[in-house]
Write a structure and sequence with these properties.
Helix content: 55-70%
Strand order of the largest sheet: 1-2-8
Number of domains: 2
Structural class: mainly alpha
Distance between the termini: 42 Å
Largest sheet: 3 strands, mixed
Number of helices: 15
Order of helices and strands: HHEHHEEEEEHEEHHHHHHHHHH
Radius of gyration: 21 Å
């Protein structure tokens, strides 16, 4: 694999960051080493499929990936490049582990600033132990912290991102969803605006899944997908409602002790309302694992990253009559605005379409 030139470019960028005083050597070193290891493991999918000694189940799955990848470019207008045309086995359950954090009495996610990516609301590690060690340091400084495993990440077109063992065994629908989402980051990525980037990619994945299933005449599967999506939307709404309650509490003039007590009550209410939501309904048990972990501000704030601006992007796609290329052009124009102007533009688009745009908390 020829990665020497691109690796050199990454190292140059990292050195520039270090000389600028905006990074620490240990963090960037683990990022470079982790990604280089990933790229070295990558093999062309077509070669694995043609190999008579390769695992039969893996070959069948990679054949599906190849069809999804072709559909992504021909039907959705996503980048036509070598991303997701290779496969790498990392021999671990996740590609990276992300750390998110908020102050104890705020739901505003902490930001970390990096070269190219700008400021983002998470810090990623190729080692779970390193991520958890960093999370403990933040917790010791008084932050609410959450660590989560992430099956894939995008290099924004700098490299040919491979398919990974960390998500290859997912269902066909999940494979398609993830590939559409990660390729969307190659269409547009606005440095310093995680909510904008992730909400846009979530819209692309949802529209991509809808069209993929229609392409395969899978009406019954799409009905199941819609039901699952409705459950996710109900969960997100529940979390967002309680995040807003926390925001209102933290904005009061109460002393910190009373805010902490109020925060605990809101978390108790969230648990109780989730139990009511499950009553008499099927499908919500999949969120039990989420509620099994201790609640904190960081966990609630993280939920809305991927969907906060979704209604506005849905409205924008409708305004473009579902034409993905026109939609991408419109998003790129909005992405050139300042963060405040972007949010206001998206809110106007959502309101014109009669949708609720969730802008609060993103400024």
């Amino acid at each position: 694999m020829q990665i020497s030139f691109r690796l050199t470019r990454v190292i140059i960028v990292i050195l520039a960051a270090l000389l600028g005083g905006c990074a620490n050597l240990a963090f960037y070193a683990q990022a470079v080493n982790g990604h280089v290891d990933l790229m070295r493991r990558a093999q062309p999918i077509h070669a694995i499929i043609a190999d008579p000694n390769a695992n039969a189940d893996l070959k069948r799955t990679l054949s599906t990936v190849a069809r999804v990848r072709a559909f992504a470019s021909t039907a959705l207008g996503l980048p036509d490049n070598r991303s997701y045309t290779q496969y790498a086995d990392l021999e671990r359950p996740y590609a990276v582990w992300n750390v998110v954090a908020t102050p104890e009495l705020s739901t505003r996610l902490k930001e970390w600033c990096f070269v190219q990516a700008g400021c983002v609301n998470y810090r990623g590690f190729f080692s779970q132990a390193r991520a958890e060690d960093y999370a403990r340091q933040l917790a010791a400084d008084g932050y609410d912290v959450h660590v989560s495993g992430v099956p894939a990440y995008s290099t924004l077109g700098w490299f040919n991102d491979p398919v990974l063992n960390t998500f290859i065994h997912h269902s066909e629908l999940e494979l398609a969803r993830l590939i559409f989402h990660e390729l969307a980051h190659q269409v547009i990525f606005v440095p310093g605006d995680t909510v904008f980037n992730e909400s846009f990619a979530t819209l692309v994945e949802q529209e991509g899944v809808r069209r993929w299933l229609a392409h395969n005449n899978a009406a019954a599967e799409y009905a199941r997908y819609q039901t699952r999506h409705a459950h996710q939307a109900a969960f997100n709404t529940l979390i967002l409602h309680h995040r807003r309650r926390l925001d209102a509490l933290f904005d009061t003039d109460m002393d910190d002790a009373r805010k902490r007590a109020g925060k605990a009550r809101i978390f108790d209410d969230l648990h109780a309302q989730f139990e009511l939501l499950k009553t008499g309904r099927t499908g919500f048990n999949r969120f039990d694992a989420w509620f099994a972990q201790p609640l904190n501000n960081a966990r609630l704030a993280r939920v809305s990253i991927y969907t906060q601006l979704l209604p506005a992007f849905q409205a924008l796609l409708a305004q473009q009559d579902g034409d993905m290329n026109r939609f991408f052009d419109a998003v790129k124009k909005i992405g050139q605005l300042s963060k405040t102007e972007r949010l206001h533009a998206l809110q106007r688009i959502a309101e014109q379409d009669g949708r609720e745009a969730v802008i609060a908390g993103t400024l």
